[in-house]
Amino acid sequence: MQAWRVHRNGEPGEVMRLEETERPEPADGQVALRVRAANINFPDVLLCRGQYQVRPPMPFTPGVEICGETEDGRRVIAVPALPHGGLSEYVVADEAAVLPAPMALDDAEAAALRIGYQTGWFGLHRRARLRAGETLLVHAAAGGVGSAAVQLGKAAGATVIGVVGGPDKARVARELGCDLVIDRRTEDLVAAVKKATGGRGADVVYDPVGGKAFDGSTKCVAFEGRIVVVGFASGVIPSPALGHALVKNYSILGLHWGLYAAKDPAAVAACHEELTTLAARGAIRPLISERVAMKGAADAVQRVADGSTTGRLVVLPGGVAR
């Protein structure tokens, strides 16, 4: 079979190599899956760089999220068991990490549902307790993680402010349903949020960026607001001034979605049922900006690393028609 493999750490476009290799064999408690679509996530970039919290032995295949097919023909979504990631024709996955693919979504959309939308759901509902009528501020609103949070926020009845970088991403964010879009390159984030909320600020901030995005959020979060820290795509991990959080009376909430699979798997299954229902009624639909053939996977991962993409890039090992 064909699989993209990494033999040394570095930038994805430099270290990923398409190779012929043996199919991985499932161990006890695992299932073999044919990959129908593999969604590219920022953790795939970090895996290539050797900066992810999990460091699989080399050579390994990136790809932490797929839509696949079981040997008996069931269409499922899964988190492949590393080192045999999803940028491959076949993977193995723990049985507990396999969920039915929603019928309302095609292969590429289903491949992009699990991590981004479960992260968004747990972040907004389980951690921040977002309520209808509140204001939600989403950083990187046109990206894969941010676009999921925008849709989930609208589905929850929130007013959603999206922060983006550049006019093309601003257009995407508006099409996603943001009530207000702020271009961080040309607008003052804090002033724009304060103006839009009558001086109150955002009740919930969803931050997959870190760095300056987090710093700005602390200046425009509302009284009793909640900042959900999802990741650090900027490459800068902020050092929050806890005295400031005390004086302004806001909360900083961490969200590591992967822990729920180990500590509360029933919550993951319940979340998937909720997301399937939302997809069936059209309230959420992963934004797929490009369906990529297998040979273009390394370039696609590099573009995600460079921050030049909107929505999701999904690799289709069998072609680009599905």
Descriptive overview:
The protein has 322 residues and is of the alpha/beta class. Helices cover 34% and strands 25% of the residues. The strands form 3 sheets. Strands 3, 4, 5, 6, 7, 14 and 15 form a 7-stranded mixed sheet that branches.
Q: Can you lay out the helices and strands and say which pair or pack?
A:
Layout: E1 2-6, H1 12-15, E2 16-20, E3 30-39, H2 42-49, E4 66-69, E5 75-78, E6 90-94, E7 98-100, H3 107-111, H4 114-127, E8 135-139, H5 144-155, E9 159-164, H6 167-176, E10 180-183, H7 189-196, E11 202-207, H8 211-219, E12 221-229, H9 242-248, E13 251-254, H10 258-263, H11 265-280, E14 288-293, H12 297-306, E15 312-316
Parallel strand pairs: 8-9, 8-11, 9-10, 11-12, 12-13, 14-15
Antiparallel strand pairs: 1-2, 3-4, 3-6, 3-15, 4-5, 5-7
Helix pairs in contact: 4-5, 4-11
